[in-house]
């Protein structure tokens, strides 16, 4: 990896956010927070990535204050005095290293199964009670459930701002709650929260507006979205630029500052006839800055084999990424697994110290280092 990576290390400024460079740590659930409270191990994990030169850290998904928000054991929450005090230690440690950090605000929706903390009795919640298309196995959200969840996101954002986070990312991707509203396969509602793209984006748009009302115009709000769903990797929310524009417009109007466009392989063109990837199209259609992601710094041969090998990969060339950046296709680059393997990935890449980059292995997920 000896290409010129200068563009990755240029500062970024957008209205309300200034970053030293374009490297973003992708949100990654690690389940190392017993009692749902960020602890000293979590503090050190994020501090090391800030010290390692990451421009912006997006934390692992952290659950907003709603009884059905969580889907997994040992995930940190972002409500309650203890969890917020834990997050404040993380924020302070990252800032001390000169880094920036935003929490990823999360509600898993119908992915939740009974038996999970904080209340094992609580089932999954979804727009139409569906866990998969045609499989009605969880709670169908009422108007008051919808209002409660919107309020929970707004409160989480207000608390995030109060404890010093540099913005928030809303998790609207991967088949979790916001994405369950976006996707017709799980959203069969015929009221104002379903139907056409305006109806299906309304829930997320109302969350963005409620957050804005709490945090003001200047606090950065990122929305992460994906075409693929964990329930079905082949799903596409938008099959043409026109559909994508219709999908994104209400979200842009609601006040999203930056779109984080989640793909597994950043080099894949989104639509036939153009080389632009998902972040490229999103930027072109919204005029907003975008973050790309997906196998950055990982061996393409491994990554191209798809889901089966998603979890193990070797470092590889960044030339395709740098070409795209230099053409302004996207503004920021999120790095996930390469940053688990190398907390100082950004500093190593900046120094062109290729030889010292460790390959990623899923074994690394067994500890938080
Ligand atoms: C993830 N990913 C993820 N995405 C997200 O939006 N919220 C999350 O909490 C998680 N959790 C998570 C855990 C682990 C262990 C992995 C490997 C991934 C997806 C992640 O943010 C990123 O989009 C992918 O990992 C692709 O980027 P890389 O790893 O190819 O750079």
UniProtKB/TrEMBL annotation:
GO terms for molecular function: FMN binding; oxidoreductase activity. GO terms for cellular component: cytosol. It comes from the Bacteria. SUPFAM superfamilies: FMN-linked oxidoreductases (SSF51395). InterPro entries: Aldolase_TIM (IPR013785), OxRdtase_FMN_N (IPR001155), Oye-like (IPR045247). Residues 8-351 form the NADH:flavin oxidoreductase/NADH oxidase N-terminal domain. It holds the Pfam family Oxidored_FMN. This is 2,4-dienoyl-CoA reductase. It comes from Kordiimonas lacus.
